[in-house]
């Protein structure tokens, strides 16, 4: 990351933390700008969780929540690996409460010794009852996912594959 982009990210985060409400239109605009480089934004927010006051901590976690999606998910893994319990628990809460990413991408973290397994289990258990997005097979093979529906028994419409002779 370049010096200019790091400076820009730090300025945007300072503006976000200075906002009274993280749900204000100005804060949403700042989050939109931070979304351009999610790796730098998430990394900087995770660093600030350590020294944050309670109000800043809440603003940072809301900012992390708003930045989370499938593209930015890998940058949150560093927070789960953190030796600081405050950072790890904040990231776990964000991951558990968000629905904008594929939770199955967390499963490979079970093989990493740095990530607490109980935290991963808690996060994944929050996603257990939620409706799933399109299955992975549908993403790889969209043609297979959309199979033509078979006519219901008793349906008088002809299926396109039926070959019947017209009545004489």
How would you describe this structure to a colleague?
This protein is an all-alpha fold and 168 residues long. Helices cover 56% and strands 0% of the residues. It is built from nine helices and no strands. The termini are far apart. 20% of the residues are buried. The model is unreliable at 142-146 (pLDDT under 50).
The biggest beta sheet reads: none
Radius of gyration: 23 Å
Number of helices: 9
Low-confidence stretches: 142-146
Query: What share of the residues does DSSP label as strand, in percent?
Result: under 5%
Overall form: globular
How many beta strands in the DSSP annotation?
A: 0
Taking all residues together, what is the mean pLDDT?
A: 82
Structural class: mainly alpha
Following the backbone from N to C, one meets helices and strands in this order, namely: HHHHHHHHH
Helix content: 55-70%
**Distance between the terminal alpha carbons, to the nearest Å?**
78 Å
Write a concise synopsis of the structure shown.
The protein has 168 residues and is mainly alpha-helical.
Secondary-structure map with pairings?
Layout: H1 3-18, H2 25-34, H3 38-49, H4 54-67, H5 73-81, H6 85-97, H7 117-127, H8 136-140, H9 142-145
Helix pairs in contact: 1-2, 1-3, 3-4, 3-5, 4-6, 5-6, 6-7
Features:
about 170 residues; mainly alpha; 9 helices; globular
């Amino acid at each position: 990351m370049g010096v200019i982009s790091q400076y820009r990210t730090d300025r945007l985060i300072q503006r976000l933390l200075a906002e009274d409400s993280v749900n204000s239109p100005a804060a949403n605009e700042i989050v939109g700008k931070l979304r351009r480089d999610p790796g730098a934004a998430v990394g900087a927010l995770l660093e600030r969780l350590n020294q944050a006051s309670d109000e800043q901590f809440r603003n940072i976690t809301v900012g992390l929540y708003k930045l989370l999606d499938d593209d930015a998910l890998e940058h949150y893994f560093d927070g789960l690996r953190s030796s600081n319990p405050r950072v790890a628990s904040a990231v776990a809460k964000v991951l558990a409460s968000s629905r904008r990413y594929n939770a199955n991408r967390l499963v490979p973290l079970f093989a990493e010794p740095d990530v607490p397994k109980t935290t991963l289990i808690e996060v994944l258990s929050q996603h257990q009852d939620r409706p799933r997005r399109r299955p992975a097979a549908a993403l790889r093979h969209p043609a297979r996912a959309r199979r033509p529906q078979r006519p219901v028994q008793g349906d008088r419409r002809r299926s396109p594959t039926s070959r019947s002779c017209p009545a004489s």
